[in-house]
Design a protein that fits this description.
Mean pLDDT: 86
Oligomer: single chain
CATH class of the largest domain: Alpha Beta
CATH topology of the largest domain: Rossmann fold
Number of helices: 8
Structural class: alpha/beta
Distance between the termini: 34 Å
């Protein structure tokens, strides 16, 4: 399994390379957006760690390009931009997670592991979840809405599967952080969950349909399909 590191700071790039290598991943590390655009096609990474402050391109613009090139790839932003606006925009543009520098190696490893578990989970036999007008193929990770394939990020897919496998059960944002992100409020803002639910609703719900993911006011979310 391969990972891509996009980081212009040589020391941080080397650190990320070693962390991923110790986790048993084959690693490609680049310093610019141009190199990243080539590498994502050549090495087909399972996960990418992306800095936002690159010398040749805005990191958020690159994030959109990488997501379009490999929709199923896990993508974690590792950035010095700690303001909420940057975190929310990064998640809206397709990041599965957002880690602020300086970071804990243990925390980063946990988040990488969470993404990889969701995107490369082994399954036995073909299994498709049918929920209302959507179907979820657990082998191919393909989601169809009204028969049409819908592109999803790794974390969007993981959240959808978690909710869809327990219909009508209500989960708090804290529970979803723990179960889907392998994280907690101490590590990560629950706004991450809110943003991913918003993105799923936009992709799954059609005009006039009853919402598939309902908000239970004061508690959290549940899948109604």
């Amino acid at each position: 399994m391969r990972a891509l590191v996009v980081e212009d700071d040589e020391d941080i790039r080397t650190l990320l390379f070693r962390i991923l290598e110790l986790e048993g991943l084959a690693v490609t590390a680049v310093a610019t957006g141009a190199e990243a655009s080539v590498a994502v096609e050549e090495c087909e990474p399972a996960v990418t760690l992306l800095d936002l402050q690159l010398p040749d391109v805005d990191g958020l613009t690159l994030l959109e390009r990488l997501r379009q090139a490999r929709p199923s790839m896990g993508c974690i932003v590792v950035s010095g931009r700690s303001e909420e606006a940057s975190r929310v925009l990064g998640l809206r543009l397709g990041a599965d997670d957002y880690v602020v520098k300086p970071f804990s190696s243990a925390e980063l490893i946990a988040r990488i592991g969470s993404v990889l578990r969701r995107t490369h989970r082994p399954t036995s036999g073909s299994k498709v979840l049918e929920r209302g007008h959507i179907s979820i193929d657990l082998d191919t990770h393909e989601v169809r809405v009204g028969g049409e394939v819908v592109s999803m990020t790794a974390k969007e897919y993981a959240l959808l599967v978690f909710l869809a496998t327990s219909p009508r059960q209500v989960f708090t944002r804290e529970q979803l952080l723990e179960q889907v992100w392998s994280s907690s409020r101490a590590w990560q803002d629950t706004a991450t969950v809110t943003e991913h639910v918003r993105r799923l609703r936009r992709k799954l719900e059609r005009n006039g349909d009853k919402p598939l993911i309902e908000t239970v006011r004061g508690v959290g979310y549940r899948f109604s399909g």
